[in-house]
Amino acid sequence: MASMNRRRFVGTSAAALGVAGLRLPVWAQIANGGTSAAFPTLLGVDYYPDQTPESLWEEDARRISESGLTNVRIAEFAWALMEPAQGKFDFAWLQRSVDILHRNNIGVILGTPSAAPPPWLSAKYPEILEVNEKGEKLHPGGRRFTCPTNATYRRLSLIIATEMAKMFAAHPGVIGWQIDNEFTLGSSGRCYCDYCRAGFQNWLRTKYRSLDLVNQTWGTNFWSQHYSDWAQIPVPLPSGGDPNPGLALDYDRYQSYANASFLEEQLAMLRKLCPKHFVTTNNIGIPYDVIDMRELYAKVDFVAFDNYPGFFEMLLREQGQSGSQLSQAVSGMTAMQHDFGRSILRKPFLIMEEQSGKAGQRTFSPQPAKGQVRLWSYQAIAHGAMGINYFRWDTATSGAEEYWHGMLNHDRSKSPAFDEILQTVNELKALGPEFLNSQYQADVALYFDYDCSWAVKIQPGHYKLSYADQVTAWYGAASPSHTGIDLIGPGSDLSLYRIVFAPVVYVLSEAQAEKIRQYVRAGGIFVTNFRLGVKTESSQIIKRPLPGYLADVMGVTVEDYVPIYADNPHLKFGSMLGSADLECGIWTDILKPSTAEVLANYSSGQHSGKAAITANTFGKGKAVYIGADLRPPDLSRVLGTFTASVGVKPPFEVPLGVELTMRRSGNKRWICLLNHTGGAQTINLPGTFKDAVSGESHSGATELPGYGVMVLTT
Ligand SMILES: [Zn+2]
């Protein structure tokens, strides 16, 4: 990192301290009128001095610095070295490492080590071990095998983090903190132990205050589940039948709270002891949904996400995808992660781990093609990232992650992507902090509600129905419009968007329904589909005709809801949607319009002739109900029709396989073009643009090489 940048950053942070030592988060200060350029450029690498012989530390620091990298993240799994026995701390080695990195002008992000406790700890306190959803206690030896509720584990985690903070609060080489590592990203994710049961009971006391209300809300008279004491309330472990759905949804919420509050203990300590440092944590976004990432990141300075497109490729290959369809799905899922990361706090985010080679443990992802690591880096930036840390510097020659390939090979020679990463880092530095910290404007919002995701998992209604899959499919159907998509949730300000897409809003509170009503009344376009408003936020079935609270806004009632297993019915689009006949997927809601216009009818099966898709004019806006599960191209046509109807469009069209995004700062705008295909693509530019990466000017038919990028300015 450039030392001037760090001084400016520290100055800004210190000013934010204000009176009485209370520190506002750095980004709150920036939002309150500071300049975003005051934040240091973070184009770094994840580094493991704990895994590297000390004789190589100087050489590593010199090479990292000479590479143009600004910072490292270290120590997030080094608990056993920092506290070799309980209460005996040894930070001398870490101090030497940070000193060397600092001397080489490399900023240090320190990771607190609670994702991987040392063997002495789990041996002495076996009660800290996680119990999985089958009731099996996890064993030490891996990572993420601990309970988020257990007070002993939380206390010991806070102690090691506090000792680290005391040791490094004043070290000029340290710039920030990562709390823990990838909360819940383990083999099971949620814990079901006795401590979590007690924690759940306490959480329920705070939420409901009355046991009668718990019994009423969950409907515990059925299956003789009436609770007469808080201590009787179980957690949803195997019990000979499905758990009470109200209890199960509350338990998902509790586990999210337990992890977020675990983070907040360390966050509060770091705010107090390290007021000059930024604090974040790293995780991944949807479709992963074990905890509510909005809750986890609510109080940190910025979102940091880990990005491994190769994992999406492996996942999709396992599902049988290949060819251009696979490539588009991978780039789409990666783009959705970035859009989600940016949307959580509505500000630029950091990639804390960026795939830089083959990644994995027992098996690993394909080798990134030449140009792909650079492309992935630009894709993150194009979607609103402010910086990137590549995972990792050297590739370990022992340990569980010895096949997680970094910038150096096992023999410490340069990896295939080494020079490409250096090129990218130098290009991004040249593009400058104003670009890296610029805003991303989206006209379209896609609604993702963890309650819906969890409640649909508890009762999918159809074995193939997945909320996360539906949201992913809608993202894939909406993204070809290149209009910018924010991933929003309950409580988000809908008025920022011209159009809101919201699939499978299975859980809908009266308050959120009112927000949607006001949005449409004021002129917004709300597009939703089947299973709308079935449950209240208490997980009770709504006691009025579906779609419940939104029946007036949608202008329909649902005559019946029908899971489809065989003989998939067909539907016929009306003229507005292109008059096509097509087959429905796994679900049909049979719609009965009151005030809505019918845009498609079922054309076969017992509900032939009845409404399948409707649009209702409500106030100044429109509410669209897609009753049938549509195949991706058909869904794309419907969503595209409504996006186009409100005049939302990109600055120019690009060919399939090329992505276009836009970032802005004041009157400046940068149009990012990303070619996710291996072959050259021709873009027809409507005017003359300058590519801020190459410095060249382009107009008219312009060739974008395979895996190539351009950042166009006018
Ligand atoms: Zn537990």
Describe this structure in words.
By secondary structure, the protein is an alpha/beta fold. It has a 9-stranded parallel beta sheet with strand order 5-4-3-2-1-9-8-7-6. A 9-stranded mixed beta sheet has the order 12-11-13-14-21-20-19-16-17, sandwiched between helices. Helix 10 packs antiparallel against helix 17 and helix 18 crosses helix 21. The N terminus is likely disordered. Bound molecules: zinc ion (ZN). The site of zinc ion has 7 residues, from helix 8.
Strand-residue proportion:
15-25%
- Which kinds of small molecule does this entry bind, naming each only once? zinc ion
Point out poorly predicted stretches: 1-38
Query: What profile does the largest beta sheet have?
Result: 9 strands, parallel
In round numbers, the mean pLDDT is 93
Principal-axes shape call: globular
Supply Rg. 26 Å
The number of helical runs is: 21
Strand arrangement in the largest pleated sheet: 5-4-3-2-1-9-8-7-6
Distance between the termini: 30 Å
Helical residue percent?
A: 25-40%
Classification by helices and strands: alpha/beta
Q: How many DSSP-defined strands?
A: 26
